[in-house]
Amino acid sequence: MMEAPSVTVRLFARLREAAGTSEIALQAQDIRGLLDALVAKAPSVGSELLEADGQLRQAVTVMVNGRNIEFLGGLDTPLRGGDTVAVFPVVAGG
Amino acid sequence: MNTKILRVNMERLTAEFEELPDAYRSLGGRGLTSAIVAAEVPPECHPLGPRNKLVLAPGIVTGTSAPSSGRLSVGGKSPLTGGIKESNVGSRFAQTLARLGIRAIIVEGQFKEGYKLLAVGKAGAELVDASQWIGQGLYASFERLEEAFRDRVDICGAGVVAEMSARNSGLAFNDLEGRSTRYAGRGGLGAVMASRGLKFIVLDGDGAPGVEVEDKEVFDRGRRKLAEGLKAHDVTKPGGALASYGTNVLINVMNEAGGLPHRNFSSGQDPRAEEVSGERKAELIQKRGGVRPHACHPGCIIQCSEVWTREDGADPMGVLEYESVWALGPNCGIYDLDTIGELNRACNDLGLDTIETGNTLAVVMEGGLLEFGDGAGALRLLEEVRRGTPTGRLLMHGAAFAGTALGVTRVPVVKGQAMPAYDPRAVKGIGIAYATSPMGADHTAGYSIAPEILGVGGKVDPLDPDKGALLRGLQRATAFIDSAGYCLFTAFAVLDFPEALEGMVETVGGVLGTPLTVDDVDAIGKKILDAERTFNAAAGFTQTDDRLPEFMHLETLPPHGHVFDVPAEELDAVLRDG
Ligand code: SF4
Which residues in chain A have their CB less than 8 angstroms from residue B68's CB? Predict the structure, then answer.
C-alpha cells in the first residue's frame, strides 16, 4: 500500500486550546483517516470534534485548502501531499 | 406600551413631547426610524441641509428584561450613500431612552450659531449651550460630560470630524465604563447630527418609569424561550465562542476560506493574519489584564465585547471588533494588534467609522499616499484628519471620495459605502447583501456568512451564486430583528433553535399587546425594506446602484481565483420578487 500523504492540520479557537497546539503534521488518505489520526495524537480534541457515536459534530467545520468538506467529498474527501486542513469548532462573529 | 416622541427643533430651539401617531404604534428601532424618515424627509434633500432629520429609536423590547436587547437604531438620509440609512448600536443609552418612555427622538431644523447639547431626563428635555465641547476628542469629552452631569449618564456624541461635515462620521455612544466606544458608525450620521447644530445628547435615566409591557405573560414566556436558546447555543452561551474570543475569531476562519480581504481587496489570504486573530487577541487581553468577556449594555447574555488596552495594561481603548481589526489591519497590510488598537482608538476619539476608515486608508495606500503596512503613517494621517488639513479633508469622506481624488479604480464600495470584512468573490451570498441592501455595502443587512462559512443556520456552498431567495429572507428577518431591538448575534441561536425564534417574536408581541407569530416576521421585514427602497428610488437610485464595483467581476481573487459571478437579473430579483 502507498504511504499516506503528509498534510498540515491547523486548529482554531477551542480546538487549539484543547490540543495545546495550533498546527500538527499528519499523514492520512482522506478526512476520515485524518480525524482518526488527529484524535490519536491529541485525544483531548476528541470530545470537541466527535459525537458519542464517533460522527463528526454538526458544528465542526473542516476545510481542505479553504473548501468546506461538505462541498467536496465529506469525510471521504481524499487528501494530497501538501494539503492544508483547517478544523474549526463552531464560531461566529460579524 | 410607551407612546411618546421627543421632537427637537434646532431652528426654534424647542424640545417637545408629542404622542406617537397610531400608524407607528407597532414599530420600533429600524422600522420606526425608516418609517419616520420616509414620511418626513424629502428624499431629494441635501443630507446636510435644513430638510434632513436625525431619528433615534430604541427597539420594541429594548429597556425590558429581554436578553441582549439594548440596541438603538439611528436613521436619516445618509451623506455617504445619498440614500436612507439605519445605523445600529448596542449601548445602555438605548435602554435608558426606552425606559424614559421615549419611542423616538426626532432632531430637525438647523441651529447655525454653534452647538447645543440635548439633555433628557425624567423631568423633561432641554437644549443647553455646548460651545465648550467643540473641537475636542470624544474620549475626554465623554469623561468630562459624566463629571458635568453625573456618573452613569448615557451619552451620544458627534466627533470633530462631524463638525467638519465628514461623510465618514459616526455617532459615538457610551460603553458601560462611559467611554466613547460604541458606534452607530456607518453612513455619516454624525455629520447629520452636527449639521443640525447638535453635538451631544445626554440621558439621565434616574427615576425613569420603564417600558410598559402590554401582555406580561406572553412576554415572559417568550423571554424565557429566547434566553434558554441563547444559553444553549455553542456560539451565544456564556463561555461560548463569542464570549471566549469575540467577533475577531473570524479572522482565521475567513483567511482560511480565502475570503479575508488583504491590501485593499487584492488577496483573500495571507499567513500573517494569525498575528491579528481572535485567538491571539484573547491571549494578549488575558496577559495584559484587559477584560473579556464584556457586554455593551446590561442584560446581554452573549457578551461578545472586551476591553483592549495598551501593552502595559494601561489606557483601556474599548472593544476591538473583527470588522475594525480587519479594516485597519489586514486590509491595510498591517499585522500588528497594537498598531490596529491605536488606529481604532483614533477613530473612536475623532468620531470615524472604523470600516470606512480602514477602507479609505487602504485606497489611499493603493493611490500612493502611503505604503501598505505603514501603521505609523496611517496614524499620522488620522492626525491630519483631526487637524482638518487638506490631506485630512481628503480622508474624512470615505473610500469612494478618496479613490476619486487619487484616481484609484479598485474601490470596494456599493452606493458609496465601503465593504466590510468578507470578499464577495469568495462568499457570493454576502456580495448579494452588499449589492442589494438599501444601506450600501453592509454585512449586517443579511448575514449569510453564518450558513456560507460558519455552518450556523444550515450549510450552503459559499461559491454557489444562486442565493437570491436566501438573501431575501435574511434581509427581511434582519429588518425584523433590528426593529425588535435585539442584537443581531441573537440570530445565531434563533437560526438554529425554532423555539428561540418563537420566543423572540413573543416578546415583541407581548410588549405591543399584539398576537404575533413567526409567520409574521417576513411580512414585517418586507414592509420595512419596501419603505427604504421606495425612499432610495425617489432619491435617485436605480438598479445600477444595486451592483458590486466592476473590479470584482474582472479581477480574480487570490489564492482561489474566483470572481463575483452573480448575474444582474438575480440581484434585481432579490428584493423585488417574493
Ligand atoms: S452580543 Fe455583543 S454586540 Fe451584541 S448585545 Fe451583546 S455585547 Fe453587545
Answer: none
